[in-house]
């Protein structure tokens, strides 16, 4: 989101709104100009000041309320431009690597993010269903896809544990997950976000094959 540190600052803190909403508006305009359907957005971390280890925290209720109020300030622009904001749910459990987990991220459960999306009430705010993050925090992937099928705007993949390739060393049954997405009418993109542990092209070919249902 603009020049803000990744994921740290989001819609859950009004102090960050000028920066975050401005960056989101620019991203919406760029997506519209280039024909991209979506812009990724984040709740932000619960810490009020990410740079201060002694900073106080936003409660889940306050963070959700602020997200709703913040999204309502930009959603009309997304509607006008025909671009969908996709709120990404991230796991807060894995602290082994900065790209494997995000301890402190407030939107770390599907239900929390879906509640924000429903309260905003716009077809241009949806969920970024990251299969890897959802598996870590909530699991029950197939049932959850059915439950929130009307709110899924984009999908990410990676193997768990470790956020590696979609191979037989990880626990997610990706063919079943992909079939469920098709069955529920999802017609958007699936982005592969694994961290390569070998030839990236080989891993990408495997991911496309595994998910090609």
Task: Explain what the structure shows.
By secondary structure, the protein is an alpha/beta fold. It has a single domain, classed as TIM Barrel (Alpha-Beta Barrel). It is 40% helix and 11% strand. The protein contains eight helices and five strands; from the N terminus they run αβααβαβααβαβα. It has helices at residues 17-34, 60-72, 75-81, 110-120, 131-137, 141-147, 174-183, 200-211, and strands at 38-41, 84-88, 125-130, 152-157, 190-192. Strands 1-2-3-4-5 form a five-stranded parallel beta sheet. Helix 4 (110-120) links the parallel strand 2 and strand 3.
Summarize the topology:
Elements lengths: L16 H18 L3 E4 L18 H13 L2 H7 L2 E5 L21 H11 L4 E6 H7 L3 H7 L4 E6 L16 H10 L6 E3 L7 H12 L2
Describe the largest sheet: 5 strands, parallel
CATH fold label? TIM Barrel
Considering the protein shown, what is the CATH homologous superfamily?
Divalent-metal-dependent TIM barrel enzymes
Quote the distance from N terminus to C terminus: 33 Å
Average pLDDT figure: 94
Poorly predicted ranges (pLDDT <50, ≥5 residues)? 1-5
């Amino acid at each position: 989101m603009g020049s803000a540190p990744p994921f740290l600052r989001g819609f859950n803190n009004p102090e960050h709104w000028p920066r975050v909403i401005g960056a989101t508006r620019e991203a919406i305009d760029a997506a519209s100009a280039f024909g991209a359907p979506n812009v990724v957005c984040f709740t932000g971390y619960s810490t009020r000041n990410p740079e201060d280890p002694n900073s106080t925290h936003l409660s889940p209720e306050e963070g959700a309320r602020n997200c709703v109020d913040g999204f309502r300030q930009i959603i009309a622009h997304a509607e006008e431009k025909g671009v969908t904001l996709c709120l990404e749910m991230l796991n807060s459990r894995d602290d082994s690597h900065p790209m494997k987990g995000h301890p402190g991220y407030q939107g770390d459960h599907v239900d929390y993010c879906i509640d924000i999306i429903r309260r905003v009430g716009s077809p241009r705010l949806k969920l970024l269903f990251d299969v890897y993050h959802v598996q870590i925090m909530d699991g029950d992937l197939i049932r959850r896809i059915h439950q929130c099928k009307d709110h899924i705007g984009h999908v990410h993949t990676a193997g768990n544990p470790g956020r590696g390739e979609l191979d037989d060393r990880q626990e997610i049954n990706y063919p079943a997950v992909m079939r469920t997405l098709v069955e529920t009418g999802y017609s958007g993109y699936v982005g592969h976000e694994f961290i390569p542990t070998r030839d990236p092209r080989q891993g990408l070919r495997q991911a496309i094959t595994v998910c090609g249902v």
